[in-house]
Each structure stands twice: as C-alpha cells, then as structure tokens.
Specification:
It is built from 11 helices and 10 strands. It is an alpha/beta fold and 264 residues long. Helix 9 runs antiparallel to helix 10.
C-alpha cells in the first residue's frame, strides 16, 4: 500500500482494510471550504486507487459538528461572481466522486450535519449518528436555497419530508430522520465508535469485487427509466456470477465455512 497523502484539513487513519477520513477543523465546525473539499477529494481518490482499502468511514473532528456546510464568507470576498460560481462546482464533483468510489462509505455523524454537511451525510451509503446530532438545510433562513445538495437529498428522502426541510429551514433530530430511512443507526456518544467500527468491519468482510459491481449498479440505475434499469441490471447478473468471488460464495454456502474472497 502506498502512503496516504498528507493533507491540511483532512486526516486519514488506517485500520486494516478500513480508512477513516476526518474533517479536521473542529474550531470552525468542519466547514466545506475550498481547502476541505480539495482534501476530501484527494483522500477519496487515494482510497479508490488502493486495492487494500475496502471501506471508507467519513466523520468530523470534535463532538459538536460533523460538518456545518460552507461558511457565508465564501459568498463574498475578492472573487468575481463567475469565479465563485465555478469554484462551487467542486461540491458537485465531490458528490460524483463519492458515488463512483466503488467502495462503501459509512458516515460517522458525530455532531450537527447542516447545509452542505447534510448533503455530505446523505452522500454516504450508510449513516451512524450520535443521538444528539441534528440535520438541516437552514439556507432559506439566510436568503439562499440548498441548490448543490438538493440532488443528493432528493434521492435519499421522501418528497414531503425534504420540502418541509428546505422550505422551513428547521433542524431535525437523528431519530426523526432514522424514521424516514436516512439514518441507519442512532447511538449514544459513548457507543458511536464501537457501532461505526462494527458496521465498517462487517462491510470489509464482504467481497470487494461484488461490492463494487453492486454499489456501482445501484447508483447507475437510479436515474434510468424502469425498462432501461431492468435491462442494465440483467446484463450485470452474468458478470457478477462469473467472478471468482461469486464462485467462492456459492462454494462456502454448501461447505459451511468462512469465505476466502480475493476481490476478483
């Protein structure tokens, strides 16, 4: 395995096949600044390129915020409107790269996830949240609309729930959003690490080859019409069953032993 990149705003911690990416600006509530987005993209690119990494955990430093989104100072300054417009596209690229990572992403939500931070949580495949965490899109309260995260949110939440969130700008609890299917597990602070690590380890034990094919297919088919999605998924069934890991999985079913997956 190559050495992980050294980044200013994101820490990378390795535990066997699991890489934990920590947004490390707790004093600013881990904002999605240009530097933070650059570092997240660099960290994800490294994780994607490393075959030994099977699972990514995304979290924030401290116990106040997972990520509070962009700070409002990013809307002004010396940059022109056009420069700001193009600069914000980095968030769209980050969401695309998360969807195309080919490896599961577990969101460890250690505190508030607001605005762009809420979008970041939604872009994770699975979410474990501390029971004191809140989620929200407060943009409407400061004369903005959550444009860049809307595409991610609308693929994760029921329409009426999302419309209430974006139009009112109120905060929702982790338990409320668990009831609507966004959060997988809600735990006390003293169990957050244990629950996240257990989930990540369980994912890491699966075939990385099948996980990548399956995860990629999920994100690819979600925007297809029904017939096209079925045809696309039909074409992948044979590909999945032709992998060595699929053959191993069928063998262990009958032999009643732990699998020895090779990632191919």
């Amino acid at each position: 395995m190559s050495s992980p990149p050294v980044l200013s705003d994101v820490l990378i911690d390795l535990s066997e096949a699991i890489a934990t990416l920590t947004m490390n600006r707790p004093e600013q509530r881990n904002p999605l600044s240009a530097t933070m987005m650059r570092d997240l993209r660099a960290a994800l690119a490294w994780c994607k390129a490393e075959p030994a990494i099977a699972v990514v955990v995304l979290t924030g430093a401290g116990d106040r915020a997972f990520c509070a989104g962009a700070d409002l100072s990013g809307f002004g300054g010396d940059q022109s409107t056009l420069e700001l417009h193009h600069g914000r596209h980095a968030l769209a690229e980050l969401f695309i790269e998360m969807a195309e990572l080919g490896k599961p992403i577990v969101g460890r939500i250690n505190g508030h996830a607001l605005a762009g931070g809420f979008g970041l949580a939604c872009a994770c495949d699975l979410v474990v949240a501390v029971d004191t965490a809140t989620f929200g899109t407060p943009e409407i309260n400061v004369g903005v609309w959550p444009m860049m995260i809307q595409a991610v949110l609308s693929r994760n939440l029921p329409r009426k729930v999302l419309m209430e969130m974006v139009m009112l700008g109120d905060r929702w609890t982790a338990t409320q959003l668990q009831q609507h299917g966004l959060v997988n597990r809600v735990v006390p602070a003293d169990r957050l690490d244990e629950e996240t690590a257990g989930l990540a380890q369980h994912l890491a034990e699966k075939s990385t080859a099948i996980m990548r094919l399956g995860r990629d297919s999920f994100y690819a088919q979600q925007d297809m019409d029904f017939r096209a999605a079925l045809e696309y998924l039909h074409s992948l069934v044979t590909l999945v069953t032709l992998t060595e890991d699929s053959a191993e999985g069928r063998k262990v079913f009958f032999e009643k032993r732990p699998p020895q997956y090779k990632g191919r």
